[in-house]
Amino acid sequence: MDLPCPEWVRYVEQKWTELKPEATERFCCLTDIDAIFNYGLSLIRPEDLNVFSRISEKYSVQKSPERASEFRQQGNLSFKVRDYTTAALYYSKGVCHADKNTEELSLCYANRSAALFYHGLYKECLEDIRRSLEAGYPSHLQDKLRARQTACLSQLKKPEISNQPTTNNQTPPCQKSRNTRSCISPGVSVYFSPEKGRHILAMENKTAGEVVLEDEAFCCVLIPGNKLNTVTNKGGKTFNTEDRYCHHCLSQSLSFVPCPNCSYVRFCGESCQKDAWQHWHQWECHIGADLLAIGVLGHLALRVALKAGQNEVKRVKKSTSEEDHVTCSSYKSDLPVKLSLGDPCGEISDCYHGNSYMGIYSLLPHVAQHSPSSRFLLVITMAMLYRRLQGGPPPDMWASCENKGVSGTWEPEMSMLGATALRHMMQLWCNAQAVTAVMVKEESGMAVQSSSEIRIATAIFPVLSLLNHSCSPNTNISFTTGFQTDPLNQFVCSEGHVDHPKTSCSGVTVTVRASKDLTPGQEILHCYGPHCSRMEVNERQRLLLEQYYFHCNCQACQSDLSEGSQKATENAAPGLKCVKCGKPLWSHMDGYKCSWPSCDHQITSADVQNKLKGLQCLLDKAFHLIEQHRLDEALKILKSASSEANSILTEIHPLQGELADATARVYATTGEWSLAASNLKRSIVAIQAQFGEDSIELGRQLFKLAQLHFNGGDCGAALSVIPRAHKLLSLHCGPHCEELQELCEMERCLQGLL
Q1: Rounded to the nearest 5°, which phi and psi values hold at 498?
Q2: H/E/C letters for each residue in 511-554?
Q3: PANTHER family of this UniProt entry (predicted)?
Q4: 10 Å Cβ neighbour count for 21?
């Protein structure tokens, strides 16, 4: 959840209503963020601190030997049935909850080493064996640990076959900043105009699939799943994002290293653990429960301020205008003015500052656009967090730069930390970017991969934030996580000059690719969330105005709001058909009527909704049975639901696609490849109608269809599907996508059989 927990929101809302009229009026008149924060800080009372403490206790991140033992026992049960992935994840939870240098910690590490061994992760297994011994693994049990260590070393001595592609290309020179990396392709430039503000234009032709921009996150925060510290469900296989991803670089792992002091934060290795502690966790650790209670936006805002430091914030504040953004008065013309990426200058109105902290600070906080009650929630939340942060030593980068006072004490001027974090919290309302990853469902016996895109983190990207919105964008984005060396840099990058590969500094990089052919002078546009293929125009307009404070006038909205489209929307009822004659239904007053003039059939909206709810319930029941491997029962329900759906829904209705996809899943599990493929083709018709012929959703369905044909031995059908799936996955995910690699392997194998 991005915003504070509901209990705290309700408390602050009550505090807002109880303010005296003169206090409310004074708060509403404040526009300077420093003044807003200091006023909010003055309103914090001891009873507020007590209430917040009671709320944050529900999100406890304290170590718990009892829970560590419980997780280890659950891991043992999964290990016995050879579910080594689930076992490793449970052991990791045990590692995080165990106190340092205890027998329980050593047992969790030792047991996890066994799961890693059977996964073939021999280096990771050896690391866990070392950690277990260092934590004091019982001497009478060490023989089996030593035997596993010997087996790992033996496996590692075997010749290793590399699956990594080789290249003879040389890494070209690339201009980079010292701390972060943002790369803009040649032929792409940053511009400013009074109407659009800063935006990015293509200055030469760009083909669909071509990378136009890479940007590194200035900061990111992992999104917690079930934030309340409750007992794991009976199914025993529910693991949230915090259980699967490194809290620093967001890479996936089965062998996490815990924070020695809290149970929540975990890292993919000692390197990330040390780096995170140095940059942010040493100050966040003692307020971990508070950060979970205030939500991801507040957490990320604080982390951005911590990373920047007091000296950098002062420097940036001094060099920017009081309006905190490029002022239209700096320009005499309405024509776009090109900005220099990364050039040092005193006025932000003269250049764009690339991927430095200036790029973050200069984003609009939209103070006036936030309603007074919303501003009050943000400032009281950040003021409370600042008070809680004062329970520990001041961050090194926020120690008084004049060296006044006693070392290790909080000086009054350090309130700038809270004010800066408040500014970033307001900016993140419009500029936070969801970081997504493809999650492959881990189901035994599934011959065809089932995957979905999930949100794993929230980040702030300095250059990506310059892209304006379109409900039908001409770009798509993908993310790379984990600290890794860039194999090839193809772009002109901001600041500095190096001629060697460089590791990512934040661990999270976004790649922006053209999803359509771009022409010179065309603006590069990104979708902020509301997309024309997933949402009606009125809903899109409402959401964009509420969250981003603008009326969308993109081509998709103009088209949907035009007179012809309005009439079509009024009459059409996409995906619904007449039960009497099978013709499409049209909207009519409070219901629907048949579009065929000679048919008089009508149906109310309530009846349609009830039928759709009934079908959805059947689909949900079938999914539940599939998860329990009761496939015959699931198939019976799906056939019944499909028969009913065929009488009221056309083939393009999304529910038809979901039913067909679930049916294909059952047939694939039982090895009936031909039936699975025919049902998946029905699903593809609905997916294409809903998301478009160039969508990633269609690409993933075609990938599954290729798998079905491949497993069924239908070489010709598989080879006919692979090129289109390959094109769409390349367009959206780039050449290193796992699904794309599997497609290439499939194609090579099939061509070898012909």
Answers
A1: -135, 155
A2: EEEECCCECCCCECEECCCCCCCCCCHHHHHHHHHHHHCCCCCC
A3: SET AND MYND DOMAIN-CONTAINING PROTEIN 4
A4: 7
CA gap 144, 542 in Å, rounded: 63
Predicted local confidence at residue 731, as pLDDT = 86
Convert 643-710 into a string of H (helix), E (strand) and C (coil): HHHHHHECCCCHHHHHHHHHHHHHHHHCCCHHHHHHHHHHHHHHHHHHHCCCCHHHHHHHHHHHHHHH
Say how far apart CA 593 and CA 333 lie, in whole Å. Answer: 54
CB 352 within 8 A of CB 190: yes
The span from the CA of 751 to the CA of 461, in Å, is 43
- The Cα-based distances of 66 to 63, 73, 96, 97 in angstroms read 9, 11, 12, 8
Structure tokens at 95: 């590692």
CA distance linking residue 451 with residue 441, whole number of Å: 6
Give per-residue pLDDT as tens, 311-340: 889 888 887 754 444 444 445 556 677 766
What burial class does residue 334 get, using C-beta atoms within 10 Å of its C-beta: 0-12 exposed, 13-18 middle, 19+ buried?
exposed
Alpha-carbon span 140 to 405, nearest angstrom: 55
Task: Specify the amino acid at residue 686.
Answer: A
Residue pair 512/526 in contact by the 8 Å Cβ criterion: yes
Backbone angles phi, psi at 385, to 5 degrees: -65, -40
How far apart CA 390 and CA 380 sit, in angstroms, is 15
From CA 542, how far away is CA 562, in angstroms rounded?
A: 17
The continuous run of DSSP H or E covering 728 comes out as helix 715-733
User: Which DSSP string do the residues of 264-301 spell out, in sequence order?
Assistant: S-EESSHHHHHHHIIIIIHHHGGGHHHHHHH-HHHHHH
Q: In angstroms, rounded to a whole number, what is the distance separating the alpha carbons of residues 308 and 395?
A: 11
pLDDT in tens, 196-227: 888 899 999 999 989 998 888 999 999 997 65
Residues 222 and 280 sit within 8 Å (Cβ to Cβ): no
Distances (CA, A) of 270 to 133, 157, 256, 275, 418: 16, 24, 9, 9, 30
Confidence band, pLDDT 50/70/90 cuts, at residue 737? confident
**Taking Cα atoms as reference points, which of 7, 40, 30 lies closest to residue 385?**
40
Residues facing residue 213 across a β-bridge: 184, 512
